[in-house]
Amino acid sequence: MKIRNIDLGKYPVLLAPMEDVTDPAFRLLCKEFGADMVYTEFVSSDALIRSIGKTLTKLNISDTERPVAIQIYGKDIDTMVEAARIVEQARPDILDLNFGCPVKRVAGKGAGAGLLQDVPKMLEITKAVVKAVNIPVTVKTRLGWDAEHKVIVELAERLQDCGIEALTIHGRTRAQMYTGEADWTLIGEVKKNPRMHIPIIGNGDITTPQRAKECFERYGVDAVMIGRASFGRPWIFKEVKHFLSAGEELPPLTFREKMGILRRQVLDSVRLLDERRGILHVRRHLAASPLFKGIPNFRETRIAMLRAETLDDLNRILADIEQKFGGI
Q: What is the dihedral of CA 236, 240, 246, 251, to 10 degrees?
């Protein structure tokens, strides 16, 4: 699969853009485990043009993580254009437009998935941004606003006509948020539409190597994107890539090996941010890791991880877990 001159190979597996998740440390770790392309956390166009410090740091990318996309969101055409030009100066490989975020503070204000209720404006923003920058522009969106307004098949054509060079579709409506199962049937319809010629990337509920393979084969997508299944499990990319190429599962990592990866993620996060911010960021990954699912009476330990404020606190908790369950 190619996006302009960016060759992502056969069966690419991408890391989804996620707020408070896909910081540089996590992106690099997922890249190391085989993610073919990574995305930044989404960036507010309003905050970007006001030069808000925390927002500007989201533009920090490194050559090690390439190809990398920076994703922006907003509801105002001029603001999105100005933000796109600022992003281009950060030299990402791709600029992605977020028309899919369902959370109230974004969609409720007419940005992200909120633009599914104003498709003409979405198209105006897309055309203007494509015209304003020289790097490839892509879009990530959803099936529609709700079950009665699943517009993605027609919308995909119209976005393509605006000049975008790839389209990612999350198989849920905005009304679904992240509940229920992702519906890939309409993603498949978009891909099978003979009028579509840009790459179609499928997103939603890719949690196993087998499901990734099924989505490539059944729905014909050009790439799949993994989001929440990567929380506390960056090795999922290696598992998926191996299964897609070899047709068999990798021998599973041991509990201690997985703990070692999570410990490294903690240290990388602290090193790239600082102790306080690094711990605040990474403890969410740890608490959500499937590594700890099924461990009896783990609730108090999970709460302790979410409350840890120093590296020493977190290391003590992890050491205790490893001592108790390292034989698994």
A: 30
185-237: per-residue pLDDT in tens?
999 999 999 999 999 999 999 999 999 999 999 999 999 999 999 988 999 99
Report, as residue numbers or ranges, the catalytic residues. 101
pTM of model > 0.85: yes
| CA nearest neighbour of 169 among 155, 179, 181, 158 | 155
Task: Give the three-state DSSP class for 90.
Answer: coil
Of 172, 113, 120, residue with least CA distance to 139: 113
Strand partners, 71: 96
> What whole-number distance in Å separates Cα of residue 269 and Cα of residue 290?
20
Q: Which CATH number fits domain 2-246: 1.10.10.10, 3.20.20.70, 3.30.497.10, 2.30.29.170?
A: 3.20.20.70
Please give the single-letter amino acid code of residue 133.
Answer: V
- Does residue 136 have a cis bond before it (omega within 30 degrees)? no
Q: How do the domains of the chain map onto residue ranges?
A: 2-246, 255-325
